[in-house]
Amino acid sequence: MSKLRILLTGGGGMVGRNLLEYPGIEEFDVIAPRSSELDLCNFSAVQAYLQKHRPDMVIHAAGKVGGIQANMREPVHFLMDNLDMGRNIVWAAHQAGIKRLINLGSSCMYPRNHNEPLKEEMVLKGELEPTNEGYALAKVVTARLCDYLMREDANYQYKTLIPCNIYGRHDKFDPAHSHLIPAIIHKVHLAKLAGQTSVEIWGDGTARREFMYAGDLADAVLRAIKDFETLPTYMNVGLGHDYTINEYYQAAADVMGYTGSFVHDLGKPVGMARKLVSVERQLAWGWKAQNGLREGIEKTYSYYLKEHQQ
Ligand SMILES: NC(=O)C1=CN([C@@H]2O[C@H](COP(=O)(O)OP(=O)(O)OC[C@H]3O[C@@H](n4cnc5c(N)ncnc54)[C@H](OP(=O)(O)O)[C@@H]3O)[C@@H](O)[C@H]2O)C=CC1
Ligand SMILES: C[C@H]1O[C@H](OP(=O)(O)OP(=O)(O)OC[C@H]2O[C@@H](n3cnc4c(=O)[nH]c(N)nc43)[C@H](O)[C@@H]2O)[C@@H](O)[C@@H](O)C1=O
């Protein structure tokens, strides 16, 4: 029997690479064009690619993605590029008659100022976080486009996964673009190399975040492909618990053997106070993450060391 053909966008990124290297992905015929081969911002190129390759399913994991500092620096492209990519791949897939699509959203889609776990029905029910509003708007529009297409013709099943923050192998460690955990690993590593006895934390460190190891998200996406029919239309992918920024720094220091101190720069941006996603729907569907924080940081740090040959 021929393998299910899957078009994976973002195959060169952290989520995409973790999926491509995940055990079991070889059951599928995955095509993963890089942006140099297929620019998702070019609608006619996307249309032509889908007509030529005719995948059975699309997994949309491409995006202009970065940490809080990148989002604050480039709101225009975080909005426009993600809007163009999302609209183009979803609309072109529909026009090509592709019936199954998994769209990757993000916990940034949720309204700010919620301390309780964020449920899928809360999307658009409040003010977005200003530091990544452009990115969030693009994510919401793409998810809604998927909804509307299904509403007009239920033969099209375009489902959205809403992951919490992700870290792991193939992450971005450049401070200009990185999220919290790769930023911590990079800063603490450089401090150790330089014999520095203090590392800077942005803000007072009391904000809370939920970071899932990228290998676990890959496992969830693979399960979503295999059990696509039972996958909810919108589903968070999370851990069910979070930590403070300070706790992430301490966990990384323990793993990396850093015994110095930390200093808080209260002038730096902190973003949402908390964005813990509800795992009610996810647990009912029957999936949970396997990697704990220490294990995830250990795997990420050893990847970082290999990449930096140190
Ligand atoms: N990282 C996180 O914490 C979270 C990520 N997500 C979502 O997961 C998805 C992947 O994120 P992540 O892997 O971290 O992101 P990365 O930045 O690691 O990867 C993004 C990918 O998108 C591709 N891309 C960017 N622009 C274009 C374009 N114009 N045409 C084609 N491809 C393009 C890049 O391709 P190339 O390398 O070929 O240029 C790159 O491989 C995104 O949708 C993101 O919103 C959701 C929640 C949390
Ligand atoms: C993933 C999801 O979420 C992203 O938003 P975010 O969670 O705010 O991004 P972040 O991981 O960069 O910050 C997390 C927290 O950590 C604190 N913090 C401390 N010290 C450093 C530090 O050195 N670097 C960074 N980046 N943050 C730091 C920082 O002050 C903030 O409170 C979106 O960009 C968007 O990409 C999106 O989809």
Automatic annotation (TrEMBL):
The active site is at Y135 (proton donor/acceptor). SUPFAM superfamilies: NAD(P)-binding Rossmann-fold domains. It is an enzyme of class 1 (oxidoreductase). Keywords: Isomerase, Multifunctional enzyme, NADP, Oxidoreductase. It holds the Pfam family Epimerase. NADP(+) binds at residues 10-16, 104-107, 139, 163-166, 179. Pathway: Nucleotide-sugar biosynthesis; GDP-L-fucose biosynthesis via de novo pathway; GDP-L-fucose from GDP-alpha-D-mannose: step 2/2. Residues 6-238 form the NAD-dependent epimerase/dehydratase domain. Its EC number is 1.1.1.271. InterPro entries: Epimerase_deHydtase, GDP_fucose/colitose_synth, NAD(P)-bd_dom_sf. The record marks S106, C108 as: Important for catalytic activity. Substrate binds at K187, W202, R209. It catalyses: GDP-beta-L-fucose + NADP(+) = GDP-4-dehydro-alpha-D-rhamnose + NADPH + H(+). CDD domains: GDP_FS_SDR_e (cd05239). One of its GO terms (molecular function) is NADP+ binding. GO terms for biological process: 'de novo' GDP-L-fucose biosynthetic process. Belongs to the NAD(P)-dependent epimerase/dehydratase family. Fucose synthase subfamily. Catalyzes the two-step NADP-dependent conversion of GDP-4-dehydro-6-deoxy-D-mannose to GDP-fucose, involving an epimerase and a reductase reaction. This is GDP-L-fucose synthase.
